[in-house]
Amino acid sequence: MNPNRSVDGQPASAPSGAARVVAIDGPAGSGKSTVARTVAGRLGMAHLDTGAMYRGVAFAALEAGIDLGDGDALDALAERVDMAFDGSRLLVDGADATEAIRGQAVSTAVSPVATNAGVREVMVQRQREWAADHDGGVIEGRDIGTAVFPDAPVKVFLTATPEERARRRSDETDDVDLETLAAQIAERDERDANRAVNPMRPADDGVVIDTTDLNLDQVVDAVIALVPWVGEDRKSRPPAEPEPAADTVAEGTAPSLPRAFVRPAQPVVDAPALGIGARLGYRAISGTSRALAKVAYRSEIMGKERLPRTGPYILAPSHRSGLDFLLAAMVTRRRVRWMAKESLWTYPALGSFVDVMGGFQVNRGTADRRSLRVAEAVLADGQPLVVFPEGTRRNGAVVEGLFDGAAWLASRQRVPLVPVGIAGTEEAMSTGTRLPRPGKIVIWIGEPLWPDVPRAGRVPRREVTAFSDRLLPELQDAFDRANAHRGLTTLG
Ligand SMILES: Nc1ncnc2c1ncn2[C@@H]1O[C@H](COP(=O)(O)OP(=O)(O)O)[C@@H](O)[C@H]1O
Ligand SMILES: Nc1ccn([C@@H]2O[C@H](COP(=O)(O)OP(=O)(O)O)[C@@H](O)[C@H]2O)c(=O)n1
């Protein structure tokens, strides 16, 4: 359903329509309009493109020959201009501006117009009034979840790489070449993200969806899975378009593929930076250790196909030896990061090595709060992370007494835990041994386990414990299989 009402009007009072707002923000070309339109259609809700409103003001300013640097003139224009949506067409002071607002002139003028505080104030008022009139709606823009409707129950921030966004835009037009489009988009992103009033950023309690490698249906399904009243709505009013498959709408259950691309936007500290040594040396060292492990330990890695190909995840290996760090890193060619105890840095050479391998410091024993925040940042940044759930090196064939750190991190960041059994390292180099002995090493990668938590919001403590309980038998299984395979191949 599309709005067919004027967005002009008297200053709005409290944003009473917020109860049913689906806020979709993000940079140009991330898919906001296409996704918002489709979600609105599927949910039988109204859709508001607030970018079109700012474009409408820019259009009116160009028509009136207003100097874009004249803030007072723009404020006054925003107050008096009449904008109305007629289906998908935008009327500005009665004239059809639908095509013109997508043209080059308006695209260049819109962001200086939108940085103007007075213009924004008027637009925000009209957007709130529109939502009150429509009992909510799917509203897209740059500041909907952060400034216009900070209480919206659904806040999504769509992203995609700048290259992909420019490519999408260039597929839509023959008038401008890819480089020019990429430069224009980069300039708009920069201005939108850095302006003083309501800059573009994900809401702290929202969800970020990276649409780079997703198709429209996957993004739409991921958004609809976040809408709390979907079940209710489907009982009471039929959707405007054919019913989506049942698994795409149940709350908290999402189709498996998009999960890797959806992450909570809760604030985390910056991911620990990688030093120059790590950036240059990691490949060389991991390549060498891979080759050495093959020759000296006839190492075998089983189940690589089960590893997620993209996105963040936690490798949760068994831990029987100091060699396990290197071996865990070998399961993927992607750079992994890992939590390393502080004491490793007391030996400068070892400390440098750990740096190069992507290690970052944590306090010994159960991971402390700050370390967990840093680890969260690594995952939020999309990097795979190694966390040994047994906490410290253990002996023997039994996996027991898991710490909750790995499950907590996976639940908070909504990423999978991958159980990894590493067999043979205790024999090769157990605690107290200085030099490794040759032998056979087998690494078994188990099925990734997803946390059973809602897509956004708090993670109940009991869910974390339950997740650790779920990991334990799977890690034991991976370790058993690795040990069994090692036994078989050693005998054979
Ligand atoms: N995964 C996707 N999600 C949404 N749109 C996509 C996706 N992949 C490609 N597109 C295309 O990208 C283009 C730009 O999307 P649009 O909705 O205009 O973005 P925005 O409103 O964020 O600028 C559209 O042509 C759309 O069909
Ligand atoms: N809520 C909003 C929506 C758009 N805008 C501005 O309006 C411009 C046009 O928005 P849009 O969504 O139509 O255009 P694209 O940049 O996605 O092509 C953006 O570049 C922003 O500068 C804004 O500041 N706040």
TrEMBL record:
UniProt keyword Nucleotide-binding present: yes
Superkingdom: Bacteria
Entry binding sites for ATP: 26-34
Gene Ontology molecular function: 1-acylglycerol-3-phosphate O-acyltransferase activity; ATP binding; CMP kinase activity; dCMP kinase activity
The protein's enzyme class: transferase
Protein's cellular compartments: Cytoplasm
Predominant localisation class: cytoplasm
Protein name: Cytidylate kinase
Annotated organism of origin: Candidatus Neomicrothrix parvicella RN1
Gene name of the encoded protein: cmk
